[in-house]
From TrEMBL:
SUPFAM superfamilies: MFS general substrate transporter (SSF103473). InterPro entries: MFS_trans_sf. This is GH13915. It comes from the Eukaryota.
Amino acid sequence: MLNGFVQIPGLLLPLIIMDRIGRRYSLCASMLICAICMGASAAIKSDDYAGSLTLFLIGKLAITETGNKVLPTTLEEARALDKSLPVKQSKLSVETKTAV
Protein backbone atom coordinates (compact mmCIF):
# COMPACT_ATOMS: atom_id res chain seq x y z
CA MET A 1 0.00 0.00 0.00
CA LEU A 2 2.84 2.40 0.76
CA ASN A 3 4.32 1.56 -2.63
CA GLY A 4 1.22 2.91 -4.35
CA PHE A 5 1.17 6.05 -2.22
CA VAL A 6 4.79 6.78 -3.12
CA GLN A 7 4.12 6.44 -6.83
CA ILE A 8 1.55 9.26 -6.88
CA PRO A 9 4.05 12.03 -6.06
CA GLY A 10 6.58 10.20 -8.24
CA LEU A 11 4.24 10.67 -11.19
CA LEU A 12 3.47 14.33 -10.41
CA LEU A 13 6.89 15.68 -9.39
CA PRO A 14 8.49 15.35 -12.85
CA LEU A 15 5.91 17.73 -14.26
CA ILE A 16 7.15 20.45 -11.91
CA ILE A 17 10.84 19.57 -11.85
CA MET A 18 11.36 19.21 -15.62
CA ASP A 19 10.11 22.74 -16.28
CA ARG A 20 12.42 24.26 -13.70
CA ILE A 21 15.76 22.48 -14.14
CA GLY A 22 15.32 20.52 -17.37
CA ARG A 23 14.96 16.87 -18.25
CA ARG A 24 18.55 15.74 -18.34
CA TYR A 25 19.70 17.20 -15.02
CA SER A 26 16.59 16.03 -13.22
CA LEU A 27 16.91 12.57 -14.80
CA CYS A 28 20.51 12.32 -13.64
CA ALA A 29 19.60 13.50 -10.13
CA SER A 30 16.74 11.04 -9.72
CA MET A 31 18.88 8.12 -10.90
CA LEU A 32 21.63 9.18 -8.53
CA ILE A 33 19.19 9.39 -5.60
CA CYS A 34 17.93 5.89 -6.40
CA ALA A 35 21.50 4.53 -6.56
CA ILE A 36 22.39 6.14 -3.23
CA CYS A 37 19.31 4.61 -1.60
CA MET A 38 20.17 1.18 -2.98
CA GLY A 39 23.74 1.43 -1.72
CA ALA A 40 22.67 2.72 1.68
CA SER A 41 20.10 -0.05 2.09
CA ALA A 42 22.89 -2.61 1.70
CA ALA A 43 24.76 -0.96 4.58
CA ILE A 44 21.78 -0.95 6.96
CA LYS A 45 21.39 -3.84 9.37
CA SER A 46 18.62 -6.31 8.56
CA ASP A 47 16.80 -5.69 11.85
CA ASP A 48 16.32 -1.95 11.11
CA TYR A 49 12.93 -2.24 9.43
CA ALA A 50 12.05 1.48 9.48
CA GLY A 51 15.36 2.53 7.95
CA SER A 52 15.24 0.00 5.14
CA LEU A 53 11.60 0.81 4.41
CA THR A 54 12.37 4.53 4.27
CA LEU A 55 15.26 4.01 1.87
CA PHE A 56 13.14 1.70 -0.27
CA LEU A 57 10.34 4.26 -0.51
CA ILE A 58 12.72 7.13 -1.36
CA GLY A 59 14.37 4.95 -4.01
CA LYS A 60 10.97 3.95 -5.39
CA LEU A 61 9.95 7.61 -5.61
CA ALA A 62 13.17 8.44 -7.48
CA ILE A 63 12.88 5.56 -9.94
CA THR A 64 9.21 6.37 -10.64
CA GLU A 65 10.28 9.91 -11.51
CA THR A 66 12.96 8.47 -13.78
CA GLY A 67 10.42 6.43 -15.69
CA ASN A 68 8.36 9.53 -16.39
CA LYS A 69 11.39 11.49 -17.62
CA VAL A 70 12.89 8.86 -19.92
CA LEU A 71 10.01 8.65 -22.40
CA PRO A 72 9.76 12.39 -23.25
CA THR A 73 13.55 12.63 -23.52
CA THR A 74 13.71 9.62 -25.84
CA LEU A 75 10.89 10.95 -28.01
CA GLU A 76 12.55 14.36 -28.24
CA GLU A 77 15.86 12.84 -29.36
CA ALA A 78 14.13 10.60 -31.91
CA ARG A 79 12.28 13.60 -33.33
CA ALA A 80 15.53 15.57 -33.62
CA LEU A 81 17.19 12.63 -35.37
CA ASP A 82 14.28 12.27 -37.78
CA LYS A 83 14.48 15.96 -38.80
CA SER A 84 18.20 15.72 -39.52
CA LEU A 85 17.83 12.80 -41.95
CA PRO A 86 16.59 13.17 -45.50
CA VAL A 87 12.99 12.12 -45.91
CA LYS A 88 13.71 9.03 -48.02
CA GLN A 89 16.23 7.64 -45.50
CA SER A 90 14.11 8.30 -42.43
CA LYS A 91 13.06 5.18 -40.57
CA LEU A 92 10.17 6.98 -38.88
CA SER A 93 8.49 8.32 -42.00
CA VAL A 94 6.03 6.10 -43.81
CA GLU A 95 5.44 6.32 -47.51
CA THR A 96 2.01 5.28 -48.71
CA LYS A 97 1.14 4.18 -52.23
CA THR A 98 -2.34 4.47 -53.57
CA ALA A 99 -3.80 1.72 -55.70
CA VAL A 100 -4.93 2.72 -59.18
